[in-house]
Each structure stands twice: as C-alpha cells, then as structure tokens.
Task: structure prediction
Amino acid sequence: MTASDADRRALEQAAHWFAVLNDERVSASDRAGWQRWLQAQPAHRRAWDCIDAVGQRLGALREDQPERAARTLETVRGQRLSRRQALKSLAVLAAGGTLGWAAWRTTPLPRLAGRWQADYRTAVGEVKSLRLADGTRLWLGTDSALNVDYRADARQLTLVAGEVLVSSGHDVQRRPLRVATRDGEVEALGTRFTVRRTGDDTALAVSEGAVRVAPAGNAERVRVPAGSRTRFSATTVAPLEATDPAGEAWTQGLLLADDWSLGALVAELGRYRHGHLGVEPEVAGLRVMGAYPLGDTDRALAMLERALPVRVRRILPWWVTVSGQ
Result:
C-alpha cells in the first residue's frame, strides 16, 4: 500500500467514525471503538483532524442556515445503516486524490499571513480590476494577493499568491516593470501577459509584446514572445508552447474549454469555490467543450451533468465530487 493509499484509507475510516458519532444511536461502545482507532496510528489522528474541521464548519452552518445544516447532518447520519454506504458516501473527502487530502492536513499559516498583509487581494471566486499610477492595468484572479512597489529605479509587482493579468502602461520615467514570484521574476517589454503561481512553479503566458524570464537561482534569461507560454521554477524554464487563445476569459468571468479533460476543467472550477471539488478517475479523462460561468460554479456543474454522462454528488455542502452515472 502506498503512502497516498494509506492516507485515503485513514480518511475513509475517519469518515465512517464521523457518521457513527453523529448518529443519535451512538453508544459508549462506539465511542470506545473510535478512541481505540484514533490512538492506533498518527495517520488516524491527522485524518480525524480533517474530518473534525468539517464538523466545525457544520456547526457554523447550523447558526446561519439551520434547515440546510439539518439536512446535511441527516444525510451523514443516514449512512450509519451500512458501514459500506458510509465509506462510499463520505470517502468523497479523499476522492480528489492526494492533493485534496494534503491541502486539508497542512496548515499554511505563513502563506496565509502573506496574503492578508498584501497590498491587493481577492477572495475565492473574486476577480478584481485595478489601474496603477502609470496607467498599468491589472486583473487579479481568484484567491490572489499582490504587492506593488513603485521605486525610483523600477516598478516592482510581487505576486504573493494566485494569478494576475498585466497590461503595462507607459512610464514617463522609463522604469522597468517586473513581476516577481518565489521562483524568479519576469520583466515586461511593452506587453500584456499573465503570471500564475502554482504548487510547483510559475506559469507565464504572453499575449502582446514580449517578456524576459529570470529564474531566481539561475543566470539564464529567456525571452518569451507574444503568443507563447511557459513555466519556470527557481532553476529552469520549460520549452515554449503556444498560448491558449481563450486564456484571458477568466477576466470576464468565463472559463472557455476547447477539448479540455474533465479533470482539468473541474480543477479550474475548484479554484473559484470554497471547499473540496473533485472528480473520480474513471471520468476524469472525458473531453469537454463549452463556456462555463466562473461566478456560478454550481451552474457550471449542472451544465456538465447535462452535457456528459456524469453526476454531481454533494455529500456535504463543501464536499463535492463529479462521478460517473
């Protein structure tokens, strides 16, 4: 069994115990069994902490939307009738794979603090348009954070998190315009471009002009012309590829998919909503085309149900997975 398999198994077991302990018929024997399981392995404690976070959110939901919370809890309690059913239903917490699980079992406090202190930031699902003093236009994507530092010798933007589209303005002082991430920086050469931080590197797409990429730990400099995109880490720059013509549609609240995999589309929609949104492996490879509203991801999911042989399973309000019919 691989580490990810073990993690998923622990999370499935935690989901089962969550259903048991929230059942009105829970007994002292049940609670003792849960305690034995909890203390058996460190992985069990990590998995339970993840499930416990769901429980806390449910408590908050009870105060704001008591009827909805009651229906949610009743769904979970109902799975007590069959352990297999409980595992099948609440195992959706792990259905998104290791990335979804890892996102819940870590607490990125330094990263969150950096976002909170940024000059400009957006909430999940929000896109913000900005204009700087020199006329530079910025579109800050979902769950993003950016610092702006216009100095005598340079116009410096630092992307702390998320994504930004930059349309550079004319600076009378002729100061270079740079966007920095943890992986390095890009310098605009009279241009329009998008920079996006990912888990492993930084993605860059240039629609007008050109950009010079400078990885943080490498003296290499790579010029990226209009119509090209690449990814770079602190040490390397990937080969150039053609940009997606619809790559800027998110600034208008749309996700335009042209022969995307369902897995890729669901991952992108997940950036625009709170909670977990996953897709089961057996349908992740289905091909998708169409325009999907980023401001209403539930409607986008309904569109997928109508267009593909899939169904959207909402086990909890913040845990959703797309599966086969």
About this structure: Residues 57-110 have pLDDT under 50 and may be disordered. The domain at 253-324 is CATH 3.55.50.30 (Phage tail protein beta-alpha-beta fold). The CA atoms of residues 108 and 114 lie 10 Å apart.
